[in-house]
Amino acid sequence: MSRSANTPGGQRDSATGPTGGARETEEPLLTLRGVRKSFPGRRGAERHVVLRSIDLDVHAGQCVVLIGGSGSGKSTLLRCVNLLEVVDDGVITLEGREITDPRVNADEIRSRIGIVFQGYNLFPHLSVLDNITLAPVRVHGRSKAEARETARDMLERVGLAEKADARPDDLSGGQQQRVAIARALVNHPRLLLLDEVTSALDPELVGEVLDLLRDLADQGMTMILNTHEMGFARQVADVVAHLSGGVIAEIGTRAQVIDAPQTEATRRFLSRLHA
Ligand SMILES: Nc1ncnc2c1ncn2[C@@H]1O[C@H](COP(=O)(O)OP(=O)(O)O)[C@@H](O)[C@H]1O
Ligand SMILES: [Mg+2]
């Protein structure tokens, strides 16, 4: 299934408004309000505020592409959403429920939010299938048989059904990253977070991973992804958000933000990328 099959020019219909349009009347799947995150400064220096105040809505089915310079906090933002970092302040909700409430069960939330990192983090001593079933069985209490069945479905979905018994080292980097994506999909997450998932790949392997992400977007998966691949962002993003100075400096459709940026910060970022 390819995006170009249903929309002219291979691009999503952008007539749906700045943040995905028709869906905006519905309650967002994910909201961030005033999210702040700092880290301890080095040797008694003041805390380093990475996210000053982030406001963001993500609606079901949207693909949100986060752009921003190195160190602008893109990974930190995704890690806060997945509760891998504890926010200093602000509120994050998933399906209307506050997940930044310290009383929530983080494992349960993470079963509804898949995350994939730049490095695939697969266990080399486990088969592909066992890599995928590990968390569902150990953390989320699924039966082994059920987990294996779902894992096989997910391998099918990422085009690697025949690699179930292979070891990660026997796969190419692109295939390993597709396994990592299958692993993130295995709990049928409501939201998928993808942190520079093609940055560590040899250039010739980037395409197969981007194709998979495009398929997932076409299938209606809600995603937030960080990428420097502007060509890809231009094809899949319903919303482009530029993170700069600890805030979302600019947000809108890809046509607005990538092709006609309104803020000086975004213009500067994009011209540096093109240079
Ligand atoms: N665990 C941490 N401890 C201290 N500083 C961190 C930590 N994680 C990230 N940072 C700092 O936060 C800033 C933003 O990092 P990051 O979110 O990785 O940016 P990006 O993904 O946009 O490149 C950087 O200055 C980084 O050094
Ligand atoms: Mg990063």
From TrEMBL:
PANTHER family: AMINO ACID IMPORT ATP-BINDING PROTEIN (PTHR43166), GLUTAMATE_ASPARTATE IMPORT ATP-BINDING PROTEIN GLTL (PTHR43166:SF9)
GO cellular component labels: plasma membrane
GO MF term (any one): ATP binding
Record membrane topology: Peripheral membrane protein
InterPro entries listed in its UniProt record: AAA+_ATPase, ABC_ATPase_HisP-typ, ABC_transporter-like_ATP-bd, ABC_transporter-like_CS, MetN_ABC_transporter-like, P-loop_NTPase
Pfam families with a match to the protein in the record: ABC_tran
ABC transporter domain ranges (all copies): 30-270
Keywords tagged on the record: Amino-acid transport, ATP-binding, Cell membrane, Membrane, Nucleotide-binding, Transport
Record-stated family: Belongs to the ABC transporter superfamily.
Xref: SMART domains: AAA
Region feature Disordered, mapped onto this chain: 1-29
Species this protein is from: Mobilicoccus pelagius NBRC 104925
Organism lineage: Bacteria, Bacillati, Actinomycetota, Actinomycetes, Micrococcales
Localization annotation: Cell membrane
Superkingdom as given in the UniProt entry: Bacteria
Identification of the protein by name: Putative amino acid ABC transporter ATP-binding protein
Ranges annotated as biased composition (Polar residues): 1-17
S-adenosyl-L-methionine found in the keyword field: no
